[in-house]
Amino acid sequence: MKKYHSTMRRILNYIGHYKWGVLVSLLLAAVSVAGTLYVPILTGEAVDRIVAPGQVDFEGLVQILIRMGVVIAAAAAAQWLMNHINNQITYRVVKDIRTRAFEHLEQLPLRYVDSHPTGDVVSRIIADIDQFSDGLLMGFTQLFTGVVTILGTLGFMFYINPLIAAVVVCLTPVSLVVASFIARRTYIMFQHQSETRGEMTSLIDEMLGNQKIVQAFAHEEEAQQQFEEINERLRGYSLQAIFFSSITNPATRFVNGLVYAGVGITGAFAAVHGLLSVGQLSSFLSYANQYTKPFNEISGVVTEFQNALASASRVFALIDEEPIPAEDADAVDLRQADGHVELDHVYFSYTKETPLIEDFNLKVEPGQRIAIVGPTGCGKSTVINLLMRFYDVDSGCIRVSGNDIRHMTRKSLRAGYGMVLQETWLKAGTIRENIAYGKPDATEEEIVRAAKEAHAHSFIRRMPQGYDTVISEDGGSLSQGQKQLLCIARVMLTLPPMLILDEATSSIDTRTEIRIQKAFDTLMEGRTSFIVAHRLSTIREADVILVMRDGHIVEQGRHEELLERGGFYAKLYNSQFAGA
Known about the structure:
Elements: H1 2-15, H2 19-48, E1 50-52, E2 55-56, H3 58-107, H4 110-115, H5 118-160, H6 162-209, H7 211-216, H8 220-272, H9 278-319, E3 341-348, E4 357-364, E5 369-373, H10 380-387, E6 395-400, E7 403-404, H11 410-415, E8 417-420, E9 429-430, H12 431-435, H13 444-453, H14 457-461, E10 470-471, H15 480-494, E11 498-502, H16 510-524, E12 528-532, E13 544-549, E14 552-557, H17 559-565, H18 568-576
Helix pairs in contact: 1-9, 2-3, 2-5, 2-9, 3-5, 3-9, 5-6, 5-9, 6-8, 6-9, 8-9, 13-15
């Protein structure tokens, strides 16, 4: 329940930004309820104007009906305006929370993104916040009017007859006990429901994104079984949540029946003894109905609000994740990177239980080409993550141009590198926008020149709208090689002082690769370059080849030197060209 109260406080904090709107909404709710509750009094007065056949005060009756019409119209207008304001407040609060969640997502370290399924994160920001908005809107529209109706009804009943009103008050705690009992249980079930829904979204996202692989390995049946297992759990949690929440309505209706019966019996005795007129008794019975009706509505609101709180707690859990450590107040900008890079006694591991890089030392002179090779999982890509400061070292330090990268701004550090990875990334937009991603103000001539240098210009020209062709996030009809050429063109355009090429030509045909390699040779001239490669034929011209194994540099030197030593590099190289 501690988490429940914490979530509630945070929601109220967001709502507090619109306190004036809330106050106006409460005022309008009071006006609407006051008008609604005044109608039974007018009805009672109208009944008392009808004494017997032939004894009807028509003049007084007409006056009452006119007043009744004005009151009903005013209450309806206040109700409409209150709903409009509530909608405004709800969706502004939802907008604030969703914006905060997305802003925080961009501040989270890659460690979080790597360890959480994409579908679950998407589910929190989209589905859970939508679920929260539904509950919050219902709370605003029905909770306000419900509470004011209860208080107002009690006020009118005490005004008419305190004794009968006391009977109603005595029966009220029964409804509150029922609502409290159900609320505690529904919150837990709705929380499990939200978590399982996120798990299902994650699975669907994964299966859709990798449908070709699923079909290629005939994994459809296993994927179906996995989906059915999650779906079955979701069914169980949903049924339990609905079961507990569905108890609310019949339970509160039972309490309503008790209240109505209590008012009817007590009022009948009062009317017989002359303590109450027939019109007042009819007003009281009407109030009994109006008093108990909000308890039904509030019980429904409580159920929906439990679902909203469970969803909100998942969103707040994302917002509460530890962000990337803030940059030092005296962090410097890397304005003129000279290409000097040094790794000094670097230790790093993704998990404490599994050591990876230990006592890694490396000095790179400006303009050198450093190739990093080794078997899968030896730490090649990890070195790249550390150089870009996607992860911080556990101990030791990395220096660029003589400065510890932890004491310089991330933006300036990353602007000093140009990256082409094995996994391509494109954004939804035109080809021009994708090439100019790192330099939005680039001219048309610069973009075309970069595309030509990357050998992408020819296939771009053949597309329906050329550089204005719109592509989706996955590149649409573009081949893997064409997507990689666009990523290479993106780097060709920015001309950074340092380069990172992680299997940059892995999806390109041999003929194009030779051309790209020549373009890279020109691009790398005078620039410090880190080249991660599995195809060792592509790094023969590197100034230094680092051979990694289990997070350590086991050999380093030029291609010919390493072959002559006949060590681990020679074995790797010969294994690739054994057939030749």
